[in-house]
Amino acid sequence: MLLQAIMTGILMGLLFALIALGLTIIFGVMEFVNFAHGEFLLVGMLTAFYANTLLGLDPLASIPLSALSAAILGVLTYHFLVRFVIRGPMIAQLFSTFGLMLFLQNLFLYFTGSNYKMVKKGLVVGKSIRLGEGLVLDLSVLAAGLVAIVAFGLVHYLFNHTTIGMAMRATALDGLGATLMGIRTERINYLAWGLGSAVVGVAGAVLANFYYIYPTVGMVFVMIAFATVALGGFGSIGGAFAAGILIGLIEVVGGLYLGSQFKFTIVYATYLLVVLIRPKGLFGW
Amino acid sequence: MVRPRFLRYLIRDLRSLSAPAKGVLVVVFLFLCLMPYLGLSSFFRAVMIQFLFFSFLALGWNTIGGYGGQIDIGQAQFVAIGAYATTMMLVWWDVPPWFSAPVGMLLASVWCFLIGYPLFLLKGHYFAIATIAAALVLKDLFSNWELIHASRGVHLPFKQAPSLLYLQFHTNIPMYYAMLILFLAGVIFLNWFRNDRLGYQLRAVKENDEAAKSLGIDIRQAKLKAYAMAASFAALGGSFHAIYTMYIDPEAVMSTELSMQIALMAMLGGAATLWGPIIGAALLVPLDRFLGSAMGGKESLQGLDLMLYSAIIMVVAVVEPRGIVGILQRVGRSFRGGRP
Amino acid sequence: MSFLDVSSLTKSFGGLVANREITFSLNQGEILGIIGPNGAGKTCLFNCITGFLQVDSGSARFLGREMTSQPPHHINRSGIARTFQLVRAMRDMTVLENVMIGAFCRLKHTDEAREKALEMLHFAGLSEKKDIPARELPIAFQKRMELARALATDPKLLMLDEVMSGLTGQETAEAVELLGRIHRERQITLLLIEHVMEVILPLSHRVIVLDQGVKIAEGQPQEIINNPAVIEAYLGEKYARSHKH
Could you tell me the pTM of the whole model? Predict the structure, then answer.
């Protein structure tokens, strides 16, 4: 039982890390917390779902589509909303993305209905393999973990081995300084939103392989994402990776010993402990 | 004759309003007092009760969220404490709400000191998320606590109607007046708060906490006091809700949605102002209820009402972060005399 | 009983020693100036005395009570008020409200606090500006407001961090006059950090010089400006040697 929990925990943790990655990229570059992050995840999930039911596309194949639709949403959000509130008081920043969260939830409620949706046909949907006694590996969860690893790898490469990535890191460290060095920080901001949203869109596509899709699904995941980002350190990519795995383990193993009704409680309690004891998280700034 | 301070502030602030504003206030006050006898529907009455209820909660939120600048998205946990205290004391020991409501307020204050003490180390979005997390932890605990019927909820027992002791009646008119009295008390309290030392000190802390420290302000203590006030408002509101709806469960009284609604109404109307929370509630409650019944009732239009609601929130956030009061101030600066 | 006794106060940040074994005494009714080149550790010293930074070792005793273990608000209530190098105004509050915050240190009632604030504003020559939001004030007036606000806390010791910086010649003269009145009419002891020599020298009874975290000189203003170590700290060795007489 414990081994199963650990395995699932790590794989789900990788997925949590991916969701958190989107949040932490945006925070790193512009110190902004997007409360509608869960709805961006939903967009990714819905894209994969409709590509599957309307076009017969496998959810894994819709990854680029989900990434794109989420990225577009991200860029639009920055352009029409965030750009204006970022310079203002904290209270407006907070309630602007709360408003966006409610708006998107209800937008999808209106257009797609409230009933729970599930992807039925796909390469890894509903399939699992036995690994030994009592050890079952859910292939869709495995896929989620693998996709997360690949995505992290790509993002890491982008940030550390490309010019644009360096520009983003520079902007994250010192926006004004970056501008003075000729970096067009406005463009970087758009890019950060596009990239951060694309990442969570990808997470949505793989999540659609095995999770129910409904308008408020984002609420659960956004809190987990916050806990992950806090633990890993706001703004740290490596931190998001490590923290995601940790949170995944905490959730599943904790749920095993305290009862599954408390598995989210432990995650929230973890957030509280982390921000009170070590607000910078493991690797943050 | 030396009048108590809250009365002095009230009289002074009322006097300082411009003539048109005074007129509006008188009309609104008369309307609120006479509303049940104006031949309006029972549904309308229910919406009015809800408006007064949310105004009350948003006013309480304002002490810590608006004036204190610590944006709390976890007020529902205190609403729940009040609601459950009143409910369980009635169920177990036949305690009337007049006695159980203060107990609820006390319990809520205790809980808020417990979590406020560590939580006020945080600011901004860290604090906001932490309040959501704390409320969710409490909700999970309540949802699994058999003693209070966990997630199944509790029906309040019918005692006798009409009863002033148990506040159970045949129509919702007496409860309307109960809520109106609470609302008026809330307004008078907030007016005292913003005029008194604590209100000033909290605003100073919000603006520049380093300077505030150097001027003798104990930041933690000030914030905790305001937090306890907000928690007490919430608990009192929770007790009312329990008596009014005769049924509570964790989802109804403790959800993150409820916390967000309370905060949103105050923020939309204008945090750190007296009328802001009331204006916010006046806009959002009817919008939610009337649109909701017109649109949400129909399956096909579900969600449109809240889309409009949240679109308004986003527009106000961008256009005037100080909320509707800020917009009114900008527009009517030359016409208005009174303070917001 | 001594007024302010700073003894071997030491504060470092990582490898950098910002204040090393600083020791000096301040007598009631004095005006003591603290000067020194940039980076000497002057503001750090202020922050240590007023509880904004925790010292590594040493002590600062005010009227016999140890200040280094106290939080800033206690220190203020004990009778020390301070201003900041970059004015820390409550920008969205009016001038009057800003000063009322200071008054609320000792007074419980809003009306009393308002009275006191009006009195302080009058003393500082800011009465006509009382209803203006602080963010709309030019820098010289903001500094006056910060002074009035600090005065409203009824301090025995007023610590001023570069209150003259950014002021024109005329504004500086007015500020000096105000400080003189604070000292004479309100009997408040002053501890000033300053860069502007034309201010420090006529105003101070005594001067302390800091350089790179260490106290390098102490004495009457006239002695200080001719002290070779002081000249060297500001202008370098070359000028120090040529100035020796």
Answer: 0.90
